[in-house]
Amino acid sequence: MGTPDFAVPCLDALISAGHEVVGVFSQPDKPVGRKQFLMPPAVKVEAQKFNIPVYQPERLKDFNADEIIKKLRADLTVIVAYGKILPKAVLDSAPYGCINVHASLLPKYRGAAPIQWAILNGDKETGVTVMQMDEGLDTGDMLLVKKTVIDPDETSDELFVRLSVLGAEALIETLEELENGTIKRTPQPVGDFGYAKMITKELCPIDWNKPASVIHNQVRGLQSWPCALTRINGKTVKIHKTKLCDGISASAGEVVESDFKLIVSCGDGKCLEVLMLQPEGKKAMEAKAYLAGNRIEKGTILGD
Hints:
This protein is α+β, with helices and mostly antiparallel strands. It is about 25% helix and about 25% strand. It contains nine helices and 16 strands. Strands 11, 12, 13, 14, 15 and 16 form a six-stranded antiparallel beta sheet that branches. It has a four-stranded mixed beta sheet with strand order 5-6-8-9. Strand 14 (about 260-265) and strand 15 form a beta hairpin. The mean pLDDT is about 95.
């Protein structure tokens, strides 16, 4: 059971390792773009390459998903970024239940957007956790954990790709241990360890009064959707890539260099160099190209 690109490496890994994938559940096709063409989820597209039956229910309960899993005689259900809450009947429908590949070091960042929040919060380490699912939200016993360091300039898109591969590796190792009877189950501690709520556009506007590192993390964490935003000369611009640099005595949000580089002072007295940005209605471009056609006077305050 999976939907986006993140889940595809796990499906491929299952097939490559010789496991028989008897069925795939994915979310329904969704309209995309101005013309609202229906587009299939990435997992559905991948499953069809291998002629695996695909099921796309709007609601699992109405669809009797548990009965389908039983008819498929599945031994185990693997969940990777499926995007739906599983009823207890589905959790119990296969002999080995359901295991989930989650993109965080549980119990931290339970919820929908663990990759983005790890970067937004400036974490230096993250990973994937394979867990046995229960009726709680990402609260089941942990079966296997793999850790990785987050690069200080790594974006959520880049980390997304790395963790999808790491998750596939962790999944196959978990299945090997399940088959060998060597799996160790570690109950998650009880308590609130931070919930990774869904990413919304409310997080986009940059507050230049904040420290440079916080704004840098905002840009990295919201890349490539919905993207950090600021106002330059009255126009909204998406900020795609930044770099921390030395401070210059100036006001928060003040442009301190704009000839060939776009450097902005932040609230802690340090600066950010904007490396890539995107004006409204145009493609993303390097700051140098933007400055060639859009004059920004030194002393301009961004965000106003």
